[in-house]
Design goal:
The protein is of the alpha+beta class. The protein has one domain. Helix content is about 35%, strand content about 25%. It has a five-stranded mixed beta sheet with strand order 1-5-4-3-2, with helices on both faces. Helix 2 links the parallel strand 2 and strand 3. It is elongated and about 65 Å long. The termini are far apart.
């Protein structure tokens, strides 16, 4: 019973400390998405483009969110998320995507699948020292991207979701010690939470667009022009 109470107090202390540090913190981050972002080719029949008709984001209550928001913004509607993703898709693949009525509609489901926090005992040390020893950030978040077409005969090839992982390491403190660059991880060191959120948004949108293209490559491009059976 005492162990349960102690663990509850520690967990509550870490949560409370995190809220305090977030509101007035010195922090540094390194962000990375795996697999690596690489531009793909998707030859399509002349005039064929895809439109992201709907985008839904599923965040199960039993899967924690990370220190940084999933898409760089805490409160984002599916409609707003769709607009951001559509903009990024057109920017990255103008020959594949178009936000027009004659483009082939796709329905996208994004899901936060798993979360792992590797900060361990460092979080307790930060709590007990009031972040004189900075609060460590070492997180991995798994996501899946599901693409669905309006033609059911094409969905068999699109059925398997495409997965990617976001990794972030860093440190945060109420003191300038939080600006000491974090060790480990990949990506440039970012010494500002607002900039880190923006970088997170760009990485996530890029990864989602690449995942969508990966799924579309499973379908013979000519089939999109073939009349529905």
């Amino acid at each position: 019973m005492h162990n349960i109470r102690w663990s509850g107090l520690v967990a509550g202390g870490v949560v409370g400390l995190s809220a305090l540090v977030l509101s007035s913190c010195c922090s540094t981050y390194r962000l990375h998405c795996a697999p690596e972002l690489t531009r793909q080719t998707l030859p399509l029949p002349a005039g064929l483009r895809f439109n992201l008709a709907t985008v839904a984001f599923i965040s199960p209550t039993n899967v924690n969110s990370a220190w940084l928001s999933d898409f760089g913004v805490i409160y984002l509607t599916d409609s707003e998320r769709r607009d951001h993703l559509m903009e990024q898709a057109i920017k990255t693949y103008p020959e594949v995507f178009a936000d027009t009525a004659d483009a082939v509609p796709l329905h996208i489901t994004l899901k936060r699948e798993a979360y792992k926090d590797n900060s361990g005992v460092g979080s307790c040390v930060a709590c007990l020292t009031l972040t004189i020893f900075p609060l460590p950030i070492d997180e991995k978040v798994e996501y899946s991207v599901q693409v669905k077409a309006t033609r059911e005969e094409l969905n068999a090839r699109l059925a398997t979701p495409v997965s990617f992982r976001r990794e972030q390491v860093g440190r945060a403190s109420c003191l300038p010690t939080g600006w000491i660059p974090a060790s480990g991880g990949k990506g440039d060191s970012i010494c500002d939470t607002e900039r880190a959120q923006k970088t997170c948004e760009t990485l996530m949108l890029d990864s989602c667009v690449q995942a969508i293209v990966t799924a579309l490559r499973r379908v013979d491009p000519a089939q999109w022009k073939t009349p529905a059976r």
